[in-house]
Structure formats: structure tokens, C-alpha cells
Amino acid sequence: MNQRIEVIVPNRSGLAEKYRSRIEDITDNMVIAMPMSKGVPIMLQRGEVFFGRLVEDCVAYEFTTSLIAKQLQPLPAWIITLPYDVKKIQQRAFVRIDTALPVQIAEIIDGKVVEDKIINAVTKDISGGGVQIAINRHWHIGTNLLITVNYPEIGPVTLRSQVIRVQQPQPDREVFWVGIKFLEINEKDRGNIIKFIFKRQLEQRRKGLE
User: Fold this and answer.
1) Distance from CA of residue 77 to its chain's centroid?
2) Which tens digits make up the pLDDT trace of 29-73?
3) Is residue 210 pLDDT above 80, yes or no?
4) Is 104 in contact with 118 (CB distance < 8 Å)?
């Protein structure tokens, strides 16, 4: 009761929007304070799936729920299903989702793109700030790359990037998980990527209900 939570719902453009709320009551369902934006109630259809986040003992959790009904008395509130698919999450700047997308990669050496040695790979996961790829090549942390990620519904996005993390999950196999950070990305491209990630998250959660 009275636990502060963050409600994450899609806006009209499909982008994730975050709103503050709190838990008012817990019985067979959960009642939370109606999320507001500048004093205006957030619009959500009955049965619509959305996400919630909360922090307990310095640990962040994300859960899935859906709207059952709205009430105005004694206080404006949403009646929602009890949380499910509860996951401990890292407090990252951008939401990350596991998905395999084709990537083309070229190294940048002394400020010049080595275009005659394009490498093909696939993503392991993606976010609005970068990607993680699975590849049979080891790059040193700090290596600069030009990568093109082919996003469904968006198309290819080419960005200057940098290797920030390298893992070898199986020591006996020459396969590496390489974390890559976008160095130069405009807000339009970042917004489109975040929108795609949020839509994919919703699709995955809804499939879990079927």
C-alpha cells in the first residue's frame, strides 16, 4: 500500500510514456492512482496491456498488467490485474530487448571507414543507445565502428559506434557477444528505435497471454 510505481503506456505515436502513480489497494485485483499528465487523466482502453515499474530495497522490478476498469470515487483510480511476468531489471538509460536483426559492420581506423571489409552479423539485443551482437570476431574495447542495423518498419539505420563490452560466453567457441554504443544518433532515429522496441515488447507480452 502507498508504494510509488511508474506506469508505462504507449502514446498515440506508439512511443513509451512514463507516469507516476501509487498503489491504493490490493485484493483480488490492484487499485492504483489514476495516472495524470498536467492534470489530465491518461487515456487507456479497458483490457489494454501496459507495464509498471517499482523500486524495493534499491532493486528495480518491471511487471505486466492490464486495465480492468476506471473509478472516480473516492479518488480517481485504475483497477488493474495483479502483476505478472515480474522481472528484476537494471536501471538503464534505455529499455533493452532481445531480438535478432541483421547488421553490417565496418571498422573505423584513423578516422576513415574501411569499406572493403564489411562484416555481417546479427544482434543479440537492441536498445535506443546501442546494440549487442553475436559474432566470431574479437574487437578490443574502444574500437570505433560504422554499423548499419536493419530495423523492421524503420529500415536500415547507419551509425558511428564504439565497442564498450566484449564477452565470450563459451570459452571453447570463438563466438563473442560484443556490446556496441551509438556515438552519433539523431533524436528522430532514436525515437523510431525506441518506438519499435516498445511495440515489440507489447507484442511479446500479448503473445504470452494467448
Assistant:
1) 27
2) 999 999 988 888 888 888 888 888 887 766 778 888 999 999 888
3) no
4) yes
**In sequence order, what DSSP letters do the residues of 40-86 get, joined into one string?**
EEPP--TT-EEEEEEEETTEEEEEEEEEEEEE-SSS-EEEEPPPEEE
State which H helix or E strand residue 131 sits in: strand 130-135
Distance in angstroms between the alpha carbons of the first and the last residue of the chain: 31
pLDDT tens profile 128-184: 889 999 888 888 888 999 999 999 888 999 999 999 888 888 888 888 899 999 988
C-alpha cell at 192: 523510431
Q: How far is CA 159 from the centre of its chain?
A: 19
Q: In the 8-state DSSP scheme, what is residue 35? A: P
